[in-house]
Design goal:
Chain lengths: 351, 111
Protein backbone atom coordinates (compact mmCIF):
# COMPACT_ATOMS: atom_id res chain seq x y z
CA UNK A 1 0.00 0.00 0.00
CA UNK A 2 1.28 3.45 -0.94
CA UNK A 3 2.34 5.63 1.96
CA UNK A 4 2.51 8.85 -0.04
CA UNK A 5 -0.10 10.93 -1.78
CA UNK A 6 -0.37 10.98 -5.59
CA UNK A 7 0.93 14.51 -5.35
CA UNK A 8 4.08 13.50 -3.46
CA UNK A 9 4.62 10.67 -5.93
CA UNK A 10 4.27 13.10 -8.84
CA UNK A 11 1.60 10.79 -10.18
CA UNK A 12 -0.05 11.84 -13.42
CA UNK A 13 -3.42 11.89 -11.67
CA UNK A 14 -2.31 14.52 -9.16
CA UNK A 15 -3.11 16.80 -12.08
CA UNK A 16 -6.88 17.39 -11.92
CA UNK A 17 -6.99 18.30 -15.61
CA UNK A 18 -5.67 14.84 -16.41
CA UNK A 19 -8.43 13.27 -14.28
CA UNK A 20 -11.06 15.28 -16.11
CA UNK A 21 -9.63 14.17 -19.46
CA UNK A 22 -9.85 10.52 -18.44
CA UNK A 23 -13.44 11.00 -17.27
CA UNK A 24 -14.38 12.54 -20.61
CA UNK A 25 -12.42 10.27 -22.94
CA UNK A 26 -12.78 6.61 -23.92
CA UNK A 27 -16.18 5.09 -23.23
CA UNK A 28 -17.76 8.52 -22.79
CA UNK A 29 -16.18 10.12 -25.86
CA UNK A 30 -17.09 7.30 -28.24
CA UNK A 31 -20.70 7.23 -27.05
CA UNK A 32 -20.52 3.78 -25.50
CA UNK A 33 -21.85 5.36 -22.32
CA UNK A 34 -23.84 8.60 -22.04
CA UNK A 35 -22.18 11.56 -20.34
CA UNK A 36 -23.74 12.60 -17.04
CA UNK A 37 -25.08 15.74 -18.67
CA UNK A 38 -26.84 13.74 -21.39
CA UNK A 39 -28.20 11.32 -18.82
CA UNK A 40 -29.85 13.96 -16.65
CA UNK A 41 -31.21 15.67 -19.77
CA UNK A 42 -33.28 12.51 -20.38
CA UNK A 43 -35.31 13.35 -17.28
CA UNK A 44 -35.19 17.13 -17.72
CA UNK A 45 -32.88 17.54 -14.75
CA UNK A 46 -30.31 19.59 -16.64
CA UNK A 47 -28.94 22.04 -15.64
CA UNK A 48 -28.64 20.92 -12.06
CA UNK A 49 -29.64 23.77 -9.78
CA UNK A 50 -29.27 24.33 -6.04
CA UNK A 51 -32.22 24.02 -3.71
CA UNK A 52 -32.28 25.50 -0.20
CA UNK A 53 -28.78 25.62 1.29
CA UNK A 54 -28.65 23.25 4.25
CA UNK A 55 -25.04 22.23 4.69
CA UNK A 56 -21.86 24.24 4.74
CA UNK A 57 -18.95 21.82 4.39
CA UNK A 58 -15.55 23.21 5.20
CA UNK A 59 -12.36 21.37 4.37
CA UNK A 60 -9.77 22.63 6.85
CA UNK A 61 -6.83 20.91 5.17
CA UNK A 62 -5.61 17.90 3.25
CA UNK A 63 -3.11 16.72 5.86
CA UNK A 64 -3.99 13.33 7.32
CA UNK A 65 -2.32 10.69 9.45
CA UNK A 66 -3.60 8.01 7.04
CA UNK A 67 -3.10 7.34 3.34
CA UNK A 68 -6.28 5.46 2.44
CA UNK A 69 -6.24 3.69 -0.91
CA UNK A 70 -9.58 5.14 -1.99
CA UNK A 71 -9.15 8.71 -0.73
CA UNK A 72 -10.75 11.24 -3.07
CA UNK A 73 -8.84 14.06 -1.35
CA UNK A 74 -5.45 12.44 -1.96
CA UNK A 75 -4.83 13.27 1.69
CA UNK A 76 -1.83 12.15 3.68
CA UNK A 77 0.94 13.21 6.05
CA UNK A 78 2.79 14.82 3.14
CA UNK A 79 -0.03 17.22 2.23
CA UNK A 80 0.72 20.70 3.49
CA UNK A 81 -2.47 22.47 2.41
CA UNK A 82 -3.89 23.69 5.71
CA UNK A 83 -6.52 26.37 6.31
CA UNK A 84 -5.05 29.48 7.91
CA UNK A 85 -6.64 31.29 10.82
CA UNK A 86 -7.33 34.20 8.49
CA UNK A 87 -9.48 32.02 6.20
CA UNK A 88 -11.10 30.52 9.30
CA UNK A 89 -12.10 34.05 10.35
CA UNK A 90 -13.72 34.51 6.95
CA UNK A 91 -15.52 31.18 7.36
CA UNK A 92 -16.76 32.18 10.82
CA UNK A 93 -18.32 35.32 9.42
CA UNK A 94 -20.22 33.18 6.94
CA UNK A 95 -21.17 30.59 9.57
CA UNK A 96 -22.73 33.34 11.68
CA UNK A 97 -24.99 34.55 8.92
CA UNK A 98 -25.66 31.48 6.76
CA UNK A 99 -29.11 29.96 6.38
CA UNK A 100 -27.55 26.48 6.49
CA UNK A 101 -28.50 24.38 9.54
CA UNK A 102 -25.51 22.04 9.33
CA UNK A 103 -21.81 22.79 9.55
CA UNK A 104 -19.64 19.92 8.37
CA UNK A 105 -15.88 20.00 9.01
CA UNK A 106 -13.76 17.66 6.99
CA UNK A 107 -10.21 17.17 5.71
CA UNK A 108 -7.72 15.30 5.63
CA UNK A 109 -7.88 14.78 9.33
CA UNK A 110 -9.44 18.08 10.40
CA UNK A 111 -8.01 17.66 13.89
CA UNK A 112 -4.49 18.05 12.48
CA UNK A 113 -5.09 21.70 11.62
CA UNK A 114 -3.29 23.56 14.44
CA UNK A 115 -6.24 25.94 14.81
CA UNK A 116 -8.87 23.20 14.74
CA UNK A 117 -9.93 23.49 18.38
CA UNK A 118 -10.07 27.25 18.31
CA UNK A 119 -12.16 27.11 15.15
CA UNK A 120 -14.58 24.55 16.63
CA UNK A 121 -15.00 26.64 19.78
CA UNK A 122 -15.72 29.78 17.77
CA UNK A 123 -18.02 28.02 15.30
CA UNK A 124 -19.95 26.31 18.11
CA UNK A 125 -20.79 29.78 19.49
CA UNK A 126 -22.71 30.52 16.28
CA UNK A 127 -25.32 28.06 17.53
CA UNK A 128 -25.56 26.03 14.35
CA UNK A 129 -28.05 23.17 14.71
CA UNK A 130 -25.97 20.22 13.59
CA UNK A 131 -22.19 20.55 13.88
CA UNK A 132 -20.41 17.63 12.24
CA UNK A 133 -16.74 16.75 12.44
CA UNK A 134 -15.57 13.98 10.09
CA UNK A 135 -13.00 12.13 12.13
CA UNK A 136 -11.02 9.19 10.83
CA UNK A 137 -10.97 7.67 14.36
CA UNK A 138 -7.29 6.69 14.37
CA UNK A 139 -6.30 10.30 14.90
CA UNK A 140 -7.76 10.04 18.40
CA UNK A 141 -5.20 7.32 19.17
CA UNK A 142 -2.38 8.67 16.97
CA UNK A 143 -0.79 10.93 19.54
CA UNK A 144 -1.32 11.79 23.19
CA UNK A 145 -2.37 15.31 22.28
CA UNK A 146 -5.46 13.90 20.56
CA UNK A 147 -6.52 11.45 23.31
CA UNK A 148 -8.95 13.99 24.81
CA UNK A 149 -10.77 14.61 21.53
CA UNK A 150 -13.87 12.61 22.58
CA UNK A 151 -14.26 14.89 25.62
CA UNK A 152 -13.61 17.96 23.47
CA UNK A 153 -16.23 16.85 20.95
CA UNK A 154 -18.67 16.22 23.78
CA UNK A 155 -18.10 19.64 25.30
CA UNK A 156 -19.15 21.31 22.05
CA UNK A 157 -21.90 18.82 21.25
CA UNK A 158 -20.16 17.83 18.01
CA UNK A 159 -21.79 15.23 15.82
CA UNK A 160 -18.99 12.78 15.06
CA UNK A 161 -19.01 11.01 11.69
CA UNK A 162 -16.29 8.41 11.29
CA UNK A 163 -15.07 6.10 8.58
CA UNK A 164 -15.15 2.36 9.12
CA UNK A 165 -14.97 0.31 5.93
CA UNK A 166 -15.71 -3.06 7.49
CA UNK A 167 -16.25 -4.84 10.77
CA UNK A 168 -13.31 -7.14 10.05
CA UNK A 169 -9.65 -6.26 10.48
CA UNK A 170 -8.50 -7.56 7.08
CA UNK A 171 -10.81 -5.48 4.94
CA UNK A 172 -10.32 -2.35 7.02
CA UNK A 173 -6.52 -2.47 7.05
CA UNK A 174 -6.35 -3.26 3.34
CA UNK A 175 -8.17 -0.04 2.50
CA UNK A 176 -6.89 2.24 5.22
CA UNK A 177 -3.50 0.85 6.28
CA UNK A 178 -2.05 -1.63 8.76
CA UNK A 179 -3.22 -1.21 12.32
CA UNK A 180 -6.10 1.09 11.40
CA UNK A 181 -8.72 -1.41 12.49
CA UNK A 182 -7.42 -1.89 16.03
CA UNK A 183 -6.92 1.85 16.53
CA UNK A 184 -10.39 2.58 15.16
CA UNK A 185 -11.95 0.05 17.54
CA UNK A 186 -10.15 1.65 20.47
CA UNK A 187 -11.25 5.13 19.34
CA UNK A 188 -14.87 3.98 19.06
CA UNK A 189 -14.63 2.59 22.60
CA UNK A 190 -13.26 5.95 23.76
CA UNK A 191 -16.18 7.74 22.11
CA UNK A 192 -18.68 5.31 23.63
CA UNK A 193 -17.09 5.84 27.03
CA UNK A 194 -18.01 9.53 27.06
CA UNK A 195 -21.52 8.77 25.80
CA UNK A 196 -21.15 8.95 22.02
CA UNK A 197 -23.25 6.54 19.98
CA UNK A 198 -25.17 5.11 22.91
CA UNK A 199 -28.85 4.39 22.48
CA UNK A 200 -30.88 7.50 23.22
CA UNK A 201 -27.75 9.64 23.58
CA UNK A 202 -27.83 13.09 22.01
CA UNK A 203 -24.11 12.71 21.33
CA UNK A 204 -24.38 11.51 17.77
CA UNK A 205 -21.87 9.01 16.44
CA UNK A 206 -22.40 7.83 12.88
CA UNK A 207 -20.16 5.63 10.78
CA UNK A 208 -19.30 5.93 7.12
CA UNK A 209 -18.87 2.83 5.03
CA UNK A 210 -16.98 2.96 1.72
CA UNK A 211 -16.64 -0.23 -0.30
CA UNK A 212 -13.08 -1.54 -0.13
CA UNK A 213 -12.75 -2.07 -3.86
CA UNK A 214 -14.29 -1.67 -7.30
CA UNK A 215 -17.88 -2.38 -6.31
CA UNK A 216 -20.84 -0.34 -5.15
CA UNK A 217 -22.17 -0.26 -1.61
CA UNK A 218 -25.02 -2.62 -0.82
CA UNK A 219 -28.22 -1.69 0.94
CA UNK A 220 -27.46 0.88 3.64
CA UNK A 221 -29.92 -0.52 6.17
CA UNK A 222 -28.75 -4.10 5.72
CA UNK A 223 -25.12 -3.02 6.09
CA UNK A 224 -25.98 -0.98 9.17
CA UNK A 225 -27.62 -4.03 10.75
CA UNK A 226 -24.55 -6.18 9.97
CA UNK A 227 -22.15 -3.54 11.30
CA UNK A 228 -24.19 -3.05 14.48
CA UNK A 229 -24.41 -6.74 15.21
CA UNK A 230 -20.73 -7.44 14.54
CA UNK A 231 -19.32 -4.40 16.36
CA UNK A 232 -21.54 -5.02 19.39
CA UNK A 233 -20.92 -8.76 19.61
CA UNK A 234 -17.21 -8.64 18.92
CA UNK A 235 -16.22 -5.41 20.67
CA UNK A 236 -19.20 -4.08 22.65
CA UNK A 237 -19.28 -0.98 20.44
CA UNK A 238 -22.38 1.17 19.86
CA UNK A 239 -23.09 3.72 17.15
CA UNK A 240 -26.16 5.41 15.73
CA UNK A 241 -26.35 5.29 11.92
CA UNK A 242 -24.27 3.94 9.09
CA UNK A 243 -23.87 6.02 5.92
CA UNK A 244 -23.06 3.93 2.87
CA UNK A 245 -21.04 6.09 0.50
CA UNK A 246 -20.10 5.20 -3.06
CA UNK A 247 -16.47 5.71 -4.03
CA UNK A 248 -16.31 8.33 -6.77
CA UNK A 249 -13.95 7.68 -9.67
CA UNK A 250 -11.52 10.48 -8.92
CA UNK A 251 -8.08 10.89 -7.37
CA UNK A 252 -6.62 7.81 -5.64
CA UNK A 253 -9.69 5.70 -6.30
CA UNK A 254 -9.49 6.54 -10.00
CA UNK A 255 -5.80 5.63 -9.93
CA UNK A 256 -6.72 2.30 -8.33
CA UNK A 257 -9.50 1.65 -10.86
CA UNK A 258 -7.17 2.22 -13.79
CA UNK A 259 -4.23 0.29 -12.33
CA UNK A 260 -6.45 -2.70 -11.50
CA UNK A 261 -8.16 -2.62 -14.91
CA UNK A 262 -11.53 -2.01 -13.25
CA UNK A 263 -12.23 1.49 -14.57
CA UNK A 264 -14.59 0.60 -17.43
CA UNK A 265 -16.52 -2.02 -15.47
CA UNK A 266 -16.91 0.42 -12.59
CA UNK A 267 -18.20 3.19 -14.83
CA UNK A 268 -20.61 0.75 -16.44
CA UNK A 269 -21.82 -0.30 -12.99
CA UNK A 270 -22.37 3.34 -12.01
CA UNK A 271 -24.22 4.19 -15.21
CA UNK A 272 -26.34 1.03 -15.04
CA UNK A 273 -27.33 1.83 -11.47
CA UNK A 274 -28.20 5.44 -12.38
CA UNK A 275 -31.30 6.54 -10.50
CA UNK A 276 -33.06 9.79 -11.52
CA UNK A 277 -34.71 9.93 -8.08
CA UNK A 278 -31.24 10.21 -6.53
CA UNK A 279 -30.48 13.18 -8.79
CA UNK A 280 -33.32 15.05 -7.08
CA UNK A 281 -31.44 14.97 -3.78
CA UNK A 282 -27.75 14.91 -4.66
CA UNK A 283 -25.81 16.78 -2.04
CA UNK A 284 -24.58 19.53 -4.34
CA UNK A 285 -28.19 20.76 -4.37
CA UNK A 286 -28.13 21.54 -0.64
CA UNK A 287 -24.42 21.89 0.16
CA UNK A 288 -21.59 24.31 -0.43
CA UNK A 289 -18.02 23.15 -0.09
CA UNK A 290 -15.20 25.44 1.06
CA UNK A 291 -11.58 24.52 0.47
CA UNK A 292 -8.63 25.09 2.83
CA UNK A 293 -7.79 28.25 0.88
CA UNK A 294 -11.34 29.58 0.89
CA UNK A 295 -12.54 28.73 -2.62
CA UNK A 296 -16.12 27.62 -3.08
CA UNK A 297 -17.29 24.43 -4.77
CA UNK A 298 -20.53 22.55 -5.39
CA UNK A 299 -19.19 19.60 -3.41
CA UNK A 300 -16.03 18.12 -1.92
CA UNK A 301 -15.48 16.07 -5.09
CA UNK A 302 -15.61 19.09 -7.37
CA UNK A 303 -13.19 20.70 -4.94
CA UNK A 304 -10.72 17.87 -5.49
CA UNK A 305 -11.14 18.25 -9.26
CA UNK A 306 -10.59 21.99 -8.91
CA UNK A 307 -14.01 22.78 -10.41
CA UNK A 308 -14.94 26.03 -8.64
CA UNK A 309 -18.57 27.17 -8.45
CA UNK A 310 -20.03 28.66 -11.57
CA UNK A 311 -20.86 31.99 -9.95
CA UNK A 312 -19.58 35.52 -9.81
CA UNK A 313 -18.81 34.72 -6.18
CA UNK A 314 -16.07 32.14 -6.02
CA UNK A 315 -14.35 32.80 -2.69
CA UNK A 316 -15.45 32.79 0.95
CA UNK A 317 -14.14 36.36 1.31
CA UNK A 318 -16.85 37.58 -1.08
CA UNK A 319 -19.55 35.15 0.09
CA UNK A 320 -23.07 36.04 -0.96
CA UNK A 321 -25.58 33.27 -0.39
CA UNK A 322 -28.24 34.78 -2.62
CA UNK A 323 -25.89 35.07 -5.58
CA UNK A 324 -24.46 31.63 -5.00
CA UNK A 325 -27.86 30.02 -4.87
CA UNK A 326 -28.51 31.31 -8.35
CA UNK A 327 -25.93 29.15 -10.10
CA UNK A 328 -25.73 26.08 -12.28
CA UNK A 329 -23.97 23.17 -10.62
CA UNK A 330 -20.89 21.91 -12.42
CA UNK A 331 -21.16 18.28 -13.41
CA UNK A 332 -18.97 15.66 -14.98
CA UNK A 333 -18.92 11.88 -15.26
CA UNK A 334 -17.78 11.44 -11.63
CA UNK A 335 -21.27 12.63 -10.66
CA UNK A 336 -22.60 9.18 -11.57
CA UNK A 337 -21.10 8.11 -8.24
CA UNK A 338 -23.72 10.13 -6.36
CA UNK A 339 -26.69 8.91 -8.41
CA UNK A 340 -26.12 5.14 -8.45
CA UNK A 341 -28.74 2.97 -6.77
CA UNK A 342 -30.04 4.63 -3.65
CA UNK A 343 -27.68 7.52 -4.31
CA UNK A 344 -24.74 8.66 -2.24
CA UNK A 345 -23.79 11.74 -0.28
CA UNK A 346 -21.79 12.67 2.79
CA UNK A 347 -25.03 11.89 4.67
CA UNK A 348 -25.36 8.46 3.04
CA UNK A 349 -28.09 7.43 0.63
CA UNK A 350 -30.43 10.06 -0.80
CA UNK A 351 -33.19 8.10 -2.57
CA UNK B 1 -17.62 -11.30 -33.01
CA UNK B 2 -15.25 -12.34 -30.27
CA UNK B 3 -12.96 -15.31 -30.89
CA UNK B 4 -13.56 -16.53 -27.34
CA UNK B 5 -16.62 -18.42 -26.21
CA UNK B 6 -16.79 -16.28 -23.08
CA UNK B 7 -16.21 -12.52 -22.87
CA UNK B 8 -16.51 -10.83 -19.46
CA UNK B 9 -18.00 -7.75 -21.13
CA UNK B 10 -20.94 -9.87 -22.37
CA UNK B 11 -22.39 -9.93 -18.86
CA UNK B 12 -23.28 -6.26 -19.24
CA UNK B 13 -25.31 -7.19 -22.32
CA UNK B 14 -27.41 -9.82 -20.52
CA UNK B 15 -30.44 -7.51 -20.56
CA UNK B 16 -30.31 -7.46 -24.36
CA UNK B 17 -31.74 -10.99 -24.59
CA UNK B 18 -35.08 -9.22 -24.21
CA UNK B 19 -34.60 -7.56 -27.60
CA UNK B 20 -35.16 -10.80 -29.51
CA UNK B 21 -38.01 -12.04 -27.35
CA UNK B 22 -39.45 -9.22 -25.38
CA UNK B 23 -42.24 -11.00 -23.56
CA UNK B 24 -40.22 -14.01 -22.43
CA UNK B 25 -37.19 -11.87 -21.63
CA UNK B 26 -39.21 -9.48 -19.50
CA UNK B 27 -40.96 -12.33 -17.73
CA UNK B 28 -37.62 -13.93 -16.96
CA UNK B 29 -36.09 -10.74 -15.51
CA UNK B 30 -39.21 -10.02 -13.51
CA UNK B 31 -39.09 -13.53 -12.07
CA UNK B 32 -35.34 -13.28 -11.49
CA UNK B 33 -35.68 -9.99 -9.63
CA UNK B 34 -38.49 -11.34 -7.50
CA UNK B 35 -36.53 -14.46 -6.56
CA UNK B 36 -33.71 -12.39 -5.09
CA UNK B 37 -35.90 -10.10 -2.98
CA UNK B 38 -35.97 -10.46 0.79
CA UNK B 39 -38.33 -13.30 1.65
CA UNK B 40 -38.30 -16.24 4.02
CA UNK B 41 -34.60 -16.19 3.17
CA UNK B 42 -32.63 -12.95 3.39
CA UNK B 43 -31.21 -11.39 0.23
CA UNK B 44 -27.80 -12.07 1.74
CA UNK B 45 -28.50 -15.80 2.11
CA UNK B 46 -29.82 -15.91 -1.45
CA UNK B 47 -26.67 -14.23 -2.71
CA UNK B 48 -24.53 -16.96 -1.11
CA UNK B 49 -26.74 -19.72 -2.53
CA UNK B 50 -26.42 -18.09 -5.96
CA UNK B 51 -22.65 -17.98 -5.59
CA UNK B 52 -22.49 -21.67 -4.72
CA UNK B 53 -24.75 -22.61 -7.63
CA UNK B 54 -22.78 -20.32 -9.96
CA UNK B 55 -19.78 -22.53 -9.21
CA UNK B 56 -21.51 -25.86 -9.60
CA UNK B 57 -22.99 -24.58 -12.87
CA UNK B 58 -19.51 -23.32 -13.74
CA UNK B 59 -21.00 -20.13 -15.15
CA UNK B 60 -18.23 -17.50 -15.33
CA UNK B 61 -20.74 -14.67 -15.70
CA UNK B 62 -22.63 -15.79 -12.60
CA UNK B 63 -19.39 -16.18 -10.63
CA UNK B 64 -18.37 -12.60 -11.53
CA UNK B 65 -21.83 -11.28 -10.74
CA UNK B 66 -22.32 -12.98 -7.38
CA UNK B 67 -18.78 -12.41 -6.17
CA UNK B 68 -19.36 -8.70 -6.72
CA UNK B 69 -22.83 -8.93 -5.23
CA UNK B 70 -21.36 -10.58 -2.13
CA UNK B 71 -18.73 -7.86 -1.73
CA UNK B 72 -21.42 -5.22 -2.05
CA UNK B 73 -23.34 -6.87 0.75
CA UNK B 74 -20.26 -6.96 2.99
CA UNK B 75 -20.03 -10.75 2.72
CA UNK B 76 -16.50 -11.82 3.63
CA UNK B 77 -14.26 -13.94 1.43
CA UNK B 78 -14.29 -16.65 4.11
CA UNK B 79 -18.09 -16.83 3.85
CA UNK B 80 -17.88 -16.92 0.06
CA UNK B 81 -15.35 -19.75 0.06
CA UNK B 82 -17.48 -21.76 2.50
CA UNK B 83 -20.43 -21.34 0.15
CA UNK B 84 -18.30 -22.61 -2.74
CA UNK B 85 -17.35 -25.64 -0.65
CA UNK B 86 -21.03 -26.35 0.00
CA UNK B 87 -21.52 -26.43 -3.76
CA UNK B 88 -18.41 -28.56 -4.22
CA UNK B 89 -19.51 -30.98 -1.50
CA UNK B 90 -22.89 -31.47 -3.13
CA UNK B 91 -21.23 -31.88 -6.53
CA UNK B 92 -18.79 -34.51 -5.26
CA UNK B 93 -21.48 -36.10 -3.10
CA UNK B 94 -23.67 -36.35 -6.16
CA UNK B 95 -20.86 -38.14 -7.98
CA UNK B 96 -20.06 -40.44 -5.11
CA UNK B 97 -23.63 -41.36 -4.28
CA UNK B 98 -23.82 -42.86 -7.78
CA UNK B 99 -21.16 -45.23 -6.51
CA UNK B 100 -24.04 -47.05 -4.84
CA UNK B 101 -25.55 -47.65 -8.25
CA UNK B 102 -22.21 -49.00 -9.43
CA UNK B 103 -22.05 -51.28 -6.38
CA UNK B 104 -25.62 -52.46 -6.97
CA UNK B 105 -24.82 -53.24 -10.58
CA UNK B 106 -21.63 -55.12 -9.69
CA UNK B 107 -23.50 -57.10 -7.06
CA UNK B 108 -26.20 -57.95 -9.58
CA UNK B 109 -23.85 -58.96 -12.37
CA UNK B 110 -21.23 -60.84 -10.40
CA UNK B 111 -21.80 -64.41 -9.36
Amino acid sequence: MATKSLKARNNDLANTQRQLEILSNGIFADGELPTFGDKIKETNQFPLRPKKLEILQINVGYMCNQVCAHCHVDAGPDRKEIMTQETMHQCLEVIRKTGAHTLDLTGGAPEMNPNFRWFVEEAAKAGIKDFIVRSNLTIIRANKKYHDLPAFFKKHNIHVVSSMPHWTRGKTDKQRGDGVFDKSIQALKDLNAVGYGMEGSSLKLDLVYNPSGAFLPGDQMALEADFKKALLEDFGIHFHNLFAITNLPISRFLDYLIASDNYEDYMYALVEAYNPAAVENVMCTNTLSVSWDGWLYDCDFNQMLNLKVNSKVKHISEYNEELLQNRNIIINQHCYGCTAGAGSSCQGTVA
Amino acid sequence: MSKNYYDAADLRKFGKITEWSEELGNKFFEYYGKVFEEGALTAREKSLIALAVAHTEQCPYCIDAYTKDGLQRGITKEEMMEAVHVGAAIKSGATLVHGVQMMNKVNKLEM
